[in-house]
Amino acid sequence: xxxxxxxxxxxxxLQHFGPEHHGIIFVDDDEWVGAHWFETLTSAAERxxxxxxxxxxxxxxxxxxxxxxxxxxYQRPALKDGQPMPSAATNNTLxxxxxxxxxxxxxxxxxxSTTGGSDIDFFWGLRQHGVTITHVAxxxxxxxVPPERLTWKWxxxxxxxxxxxxxxxxxxxxxxxxxxxxxxVARVGYxxxxxxxxxxxxxxxxxxxxxxVLHEYGKxxxxxxxxxxxxxx
Length: 233
Known about the structure:
Blueprint: H1 6-15, E1 23-27, E2 31-33, H2 37-48, E3 51-53, E4 56-59, H3 66-71, E5 92-96, H4 97-102, H5 118-128, E6 133-135, E7 141-144, H6 152-172, H7 181-200, H8 207-223
Parallel strand pairs: 3-6, 4-7
Antiparallel strand pairs: 1-5, 2-7, 3-5
Helix pairs in contact: 6-8, 7-8
């Protein structure tokens, strides 16, 4: 694909998603899959239809910062098998062609190319058109973390960016954002206290409350027009 940007690369994949294909699977270029990943993911799609998405397990290097390991950073929350999802990422996801066509054969929005989030927007839109998104707990995929992502600066930037993307996607699809601000403020307050309490107890900085605080901050930043161009050349 000659056009720079993640969305353009993903759209190139959709150009090859012809009527002779039953489904299309998205994975990232820095991942490897489990022994029975393909059979598990495709069998789940046959049973449930729509979009099925499996877990991504991050493998930290032996020399990862101690605070990062101790705090549970990069460890995604575990979902139950068959659990509905509001959206999905292109890191371990299968989409059936029949459901894609029923939703109008959408493409990835290139407005998200340099900021990331075109996958969240894409699958959020599919769900708005009635396509189900289901978690497949045993369709395991694994990824390494490059050295440049083992820093507080990178993590903070990514978490804020995720909040911004969340706001942009909701606004694009007509979801209420401003009305959710009071709940977001309450969530920040609760998690800020929890964050401090963990430090006082000697547990250090924990990922879950910190993620919540920075995510909510990113939501507000998105409302104010802020962007994080993580993938800009």
